[in-house]
Every structure is written in C-alpha cells, then in structure tokens.
Amino acid sequence: MHISIFLALADYHAANRSAIRIVPHLRDSKKDDVEAASAAIYLLKDVHVQAIFGPQMSTQTDFVIDLGNRVKVPIISPATSPSLSVKENPYFIRGALPSSSQTKAISAIVKNYNWREVVIIYEDSSYGTGILPHLTDALLEISTVVSYRSVISPSANDDQILRELYKLNTMQTRVFIVHLQPFLASRIFLKAKEAGMMSRGYAWIITDVLTSLLDLVNPSVVEASMQGVLGVKPYVPRSNELDNFTKRWRKRFRQEYPDMDQVELNVYGLWAYDSITSLAEAVEKVGTTAVPKLRKPDTRENLTDLDALRTSEVGSLLIDSMQNTQLKTGLSGDFRIVDGELQPSPYQIVNIIGKGERSVGFWTEKDGISYKLKMNGKTTKSNNKQLGGIIWPGESTIVPRGWDIPTSGKKLRVGVPVKGGLEQFIKVERDSKTQAVTATGFCADVFKEVIQSLPYAVPYEFIPFPIPDSINLPDYDDLLDKITSKAISNPFVGDVTILASRAEYVDFTLPFSESGISAVVPVRDDDRKNAWIFLKPLKAELWITTGAFFIFIGFVVWVLEHRVNKEFRGPKRKQFGMIFWFSFSTLVFAHRERVTSNLTRFVLIVWVFVVLVLTSSYTASLTSMLTVQQLQPTIIDLNDLIKNGEYVGYQEGSFVKDVLKSMKFDSSKLRSYSTLEEYNEALSRSSKNGGVGAIVDELPYLRLFLNKYCRKYIMVGPTYKTAGFGFAFPKGSPLVPDFSRAVLKVVEGEFMNNIIQKWFGNETDCPEQDGMAIASDSLTLDSFKGLFLIAGVSAGSALLLFFFSFLYQNREILATHDSIGKRLSAIAKVFDEERDNCNSKSQKPEANESQAATLFAASEASPEILPDLPLQIPEIRTSDGVGASPAAEGFSTTEPGTPVHETITGTTEERLNPVQEIIQR
C-alpha cells in the first residue's frame, strides 16, 4: 500500500499541472492501537494534515475515525470490519470492501453443493467476530445451519490449536469456513494436515482477506497443507493499465525494500492507489480558492493533546466531494464510492492448487454463481450455474457430501419400536447369546435397502425401545420425543406416519408408503336369499315414475281412441279398466286391441321404445344381482357410525385416535386393538355384542387386514389424506436429503414391488377388497330422465293436437250463447258419443253395411233363400274395423287382403247382387 500511495501521487502530479501539491506524511502504527492513536494525533496537531489514509486494522481505525469527526478531517481507511459504520461517522470513507459483503458469495458456494451444516473457524478479535452475524444470516437464508463456532485466539499455541481441531474432527460436519489472518491461518492449516483433516471428504473455504493475501503465507505451507481449499476474493479485471502499473510497482518495491522477499501486488494495494487518486481529484475540485487552514481552538490553560487539535476548514469540502465519486479507469475495477462506502464488485472463486490458485468461477449479487464473467463485470447467462472443475482436499474430484460419521468409532444409532402386533411392518428381536439386535418387517427392509442405495457406506446399529406395559402401548409421539432428547442420536425407523405436528421437532424423509386413513366394515348378508330381490333393480323413485307414466300413456290412448274405436267404448267400468290394461299390457307386449288413430300410433311407438329400454335394463340388473356375489358394506359413510352410536376401533398407539376425536366421535365409543386377529374378532361381534361397527386405520394396515379377511369385510370411504410412512431424524440432520433421495430410488425400483409381495402377499388375490367407492347396483331415475321426457312430450303433444282438432270441429257449439256450463256439457256429450253417430255424412254407408250384415245373418239362418251360395261362408273382414273381430296380436290395423280373400269377397258380392235386387223389390 505504501508503494501504491507514492505511485498514485506521482501519476496524479504528472497528469495534472496544478498549483496544488499533495504531500504525503507517513507514520507507522506498529500494529498497536496506542501507536496508531498517537500517530494520528501527531499528524493532526503538528503536521496539520487535511486527510488521513489508514490505518489498516479495524480497532485502530475506530479511534482515528473519532478524531476525524472531531477535527472534520476525512479518514480514508481500508479497514474491513462491518462494525465501522459510515452512516454514523460523517468523515469516514471506507476504501475497501467490508468483510460482510463476501458472506453471500460464501453462502452461494455452500448452497451450490447442498451442504446443510458448516463450522466457522474465526479469530478471537474484533476482526474475527465482526463477520459472524452477517455470515450466519446469509447461511440461514439458504437453510444451512452453523453447527459449531470454533474461536481461535491469536496467542494460542500449537497444542491448543491441535486440540480444537481434534474436537472438530469428532463432530459430524465436514465443511469449514475459515476467517483468519494469514499468520494464524497458516498455523491452523498445518495442524489440520497433521490431524488428517486435509484429506478426502473435507471441504475448506477461506475468506477474502486470506485469499487476497495468500502470497504472505509461506509457500511451503500452501503447497503442503492447503491443497484443495476454496477461496473468495474481490475480482480485479485484467487491463493494460494494470499490467504496466504492476511492472512499475515491482520495480519500486525492490528499490524501497531491497532486503524483503518479493511479494505480489494485491487488491489492497490497488484500492490504496484508487483511494489516493479519488482524494487527489477531490482536492482538484475544491480548487486553489480554499486555502488549507486549521482553526485554532479556544485559548485555555491545561489543554490536552485532543483539546489542542485544530478544526479543518477544508475537510467538509473534501468529504462532500469524496462521498459520491467514481473513477473511470480504476486499477481495481469499478471503483465507486456511494455515501462514503465502496460498492461491491464481483467476487472471484479460486481453488488452491500447488503454490498458487486457479479460478473456478465468479459470483455477483445479481446473477449468483457462474463459471465465466463478461468484460463488463457481469456473469454470463448460461443454464449451467456450476463452478469449474475443483480439486478437493486429498486430490479428490468428488464433491464432499459435507458430513461424515464421527471418527469416535460410534455407529449410526437407529431407533426401532418394539410392538406387540402387526409384525409385518416392524419386528425387533434380540439374540439371547450375542445380544445382537435384528429388525425385520416391511419398514426395516426398506431402511436397509435405502442404506444400500446411499453413495457411501454408513455403519449402523438398531437400538430397540421396548414397551414396558404391553397392554397400553405409548403413542409414537412419545417415542419421537426420544430423538429430541438425544436418546436416539440419529434416525427412528418404523411405521411412523409423517404429520405436521411431528415435523415441528423432527425432520422426516420423503414417504415410502401410500397415505390415507379409511375404514373397514363387515359386508352384508347375501341378497340373493331375499324374497323381494326382484324389486331392487330399480330405485323407488324409478318405480313410481314408471307406474305414473303407464297410467298417463293409457289415459292418452283412451282419449285418442274413445270416439272412433269400439274397443275403448262401453260402460265406464270397462273404459276405466281399459286405461290400466292397455298401458300395462305394453310392458310385456300382451295388448290385443287395435288402434285406428295416427296420433295413437305415434304415441305407442315412442312408449314401446321406452318400455323396451326399461325392461332390458331391469333384466340386466336383476341378472347381475342373482348371478354375481355383491359385497355391500353395512355402513357406507363414517357419519353413519356417529348417527347410529356405533363403537369404532383403531390401532393402539396410533394418531388415528386424535383424528377420530376431531371428527366428533365420542371418546367413550373408541376402542383400541393391536393385532389383525383382534380387528377380526371385534368386527365379527359388532357393537351390540362388545365389538365395533368399523375399524378406522391407515391404508397400509387396512390393506394387510383385507388381504387376510377379504371376503368378510370391505373398505368404505371417504379417504382422509396423510403423508405416509417416513424415517424420522433429529431436527437439522444432514442425513435427511441423502436419505430422501435414496428413498425415491427404492420406491421407483422393482425392489418395492418385491418387498410388498413378501410381507403383504399378492393383493390381486382379493380383488373385492377395494371398496372405497361403494355405489348401489339399483338403477336410478337419473339414468332414464331423457326417455321419460321424450315419452311425455310425445304423448302431451298428441293430446294437445287432438283437443285442438276436436274443438275446431265442434266450434259451432262453442259459438252458441249458452252458459259456459251448458257449452262444456255439450262438448263432453259430443266427446262421449261415437264418432259415426255424430257424423251424418257417414250414416248411409253404415246403414248399407248394416243391411248387408243382416242379410248375411239371414242367409246363414235360411240357406234356401240363397241357393247358389255355399253352405259355409268364410270370415269376411271389413275395411273400417267397425264390428270386426280383434286381431290376433298387437295393435296393428286391418291387413291388406290376400288373393284368396279377394276371390271370396268378389264372389260373395256377385252373389249378393240378385239378393239385393229381390229385397229392393
């Protein structure tokens, strides 16, 4: 920094032929706070300086800033402590980036590799503690926990350092962030190498001060004990000006310090150059009109050195000019001071290899991590946000996972519950001779497979938690509390359901089983033995609607045929019976009455189609009921249990009890059981005989139960969702992400199907067990609304057309001046009369036909009258249907005559002609 200050002044004076000259006065603080304070007082009191650059240490700067505020002299310091506030010190200009500005860059590296826990090693000084709150907050933002803070005293000896490192090595975390100055850091890394902590699986990150001043660390230390370390430092872009300045700086350094080992120019030297250049530009802006003066203090006796300091009249002008400034061609890059604070620049991420470092990426607050950086200082836009290839400690290219089993030799202690029932899920046994604990069952097998799927070996041992009282099993929440109380140092394996209440004090992996809570109830007796099963194919409302339509269609047909068809005439009792008979006979197509009206034919065509669909559907439904065994539940909904006051069973120790209480079940109606056999016995007895009406439990248990008793019970809905089974870990455990990824691999693989079949059997052997969507087999009115609508519209339309036509034909009756009652009575009388009797135009033909019929009757009685006619006359059908014999089937009208009929008819007519003549005579 000394060389950079002189070169900055020389370059400024060479470029500006101004009358103002800036003269440097140097004082050495000797790394002592008192010496720094004394030097600052001397410069202000005796030399009458108008600005001070330095000191470098934060504790020294803190006192010097107070002096600057008192005498109104700008203090430009490269101190990095975040505790030095620019806002609270109006005459303080920070000429370097605070250490807090790098914390987000460090957290970005940690997040990039999914490390969930880190250890911070820092110096026991204001320099070391200043970064802690900022670094901790940055890590918390990415959900990373600082598992331990290791504070190292600058005066600590090698044994103390080695003891602290051994302590860290017995912990689980393997990611270390080092915030130390070069001299103390070199000692730490030497001892870390000795403790075996610079090997494969460890990750070390150093902060910007150590990375930027790495050339001050002994090269042998770097090469021997810092290989694979990651570091962050402010990025300095390469330029021709920087290259030329570096050559001049090295030459001047050899001249000033011929006996000192050559060191490299770092960012602090560049910041010093740019800070002095900014100060020189501020002086130039103030101009020659402001003659540097110091106002004398009040004349008093017994003044101290502080009281004797004079106030600067130029300092306020300089500070106003420097608080917001920017160098167009700063050697350190984008050198901008805003409100007295140097603005952050991109950070470079380096990997220490050999005696030096290699760039592996960059970080900016806007774009985060990127492998390359544009010329304008912004990260390149790319889909790959990863860093370049890194050589980790131990010459490894594999990214450290960030944690490891402690070197104390302890295995992963896995807690397992000792249960009295449902051993298909978890069963714990202890060898009487070796005392070795083994765990079997579905959950244990999944856990073992997950361990095998991890990308690293994890030794483990099962720790059983026996139940002291086999009658009253404790709730799983009580067992999970043992994780929080450190009784179980790591995971808890068993049929543990993931719940929001439990997730508050433990961390769960992703679930490895299906989820949900449902109920199992007994099935009803076989309905095929029911004498009234023929009524079940149709719902009651469908039966009623169908019957009503039969009556309605019969009434419509009677109205349309009453005046023109003798089959629909006669006594009222006969007509009333005809309405019912004709419509219901269409159900089995047994009607024999013929119809003559086209409107009637239209109505019947539509209605017969409706009847066909109804009968076909009824037949299919009844056939299904009689031939296929139906597993119908005794209770369809859980609310029925509450209404009927049924007892409900659940598994002992399960959270289902709390769920039932939240559903308004009475606690006195809840009974707990432990085994599948107890489930079966309780459901078989029912609530009236000391059992239960339903068992409510999680789906995995119910599937297992139904697989064993699938013909006796059925599952009913609804299903209440849960997250399924998961492995429980202590809060913040770094094992959870790796175990969750391993769980996904196991669940998605073929192993899961094999293990399910191993412990629960083949579920396809009992296809009726899934009864969660129970529905009635009876047909409902909704399925036939369209048909009834068509039939109703058709019949109604025909009825309206008939009445409009009838009223039009008898409009003369309506046009009379009689009372409404008389007119309606006349209309009703006309409607009740046969159409032929009320139509005069058709009387003569009918009379002739009547005479012909009489003649036929007479001739049949006296064959002598018609000697030429045969003795037996075939049946003769008239064309209008009046007086004709009914058809053999259906409702068809008179069919066309066959040739035989035509011949007989013609012959008869020929023979009738003489008879008619005789009669006329």
UniProtKB/TrEMBL annotation:
Pfam families: ANF_receptor, Lig_chan
Bilayer-spanning residue ranges: 542-560, 604-628, 787-808
Disulphide bond pairs: C710-C766
Keywords: Disulfide bond, Glycoprotein, Ion channel, Ion transport, Ligand-gated ion channel, Membrane, Receptor, Signal, Transmembrane, Transmembrane helix, Transport
GO CC field: membrane
Lipid bilayer topology: Multi-pass membrane protein
Record-annotated Ionotropic glutamate receptor C-terminal domain positions: 411-762
GO MF: ligand-gated monoatomic ion channel activity
Domain of life according to the entry: Eukaryota
Locations listed in the record: Membrane
Family, per entry: Belongs to the glutamate-gated ion channel (TC 1.A.10.1) family.
The protein's role, per its UniProt record: Glutamate-gated receptor that probably acts as non-selective cation channel.
Subunit structure of this chain's protein: May form heteromers.
Protein's recorded name: Glutamate receptor
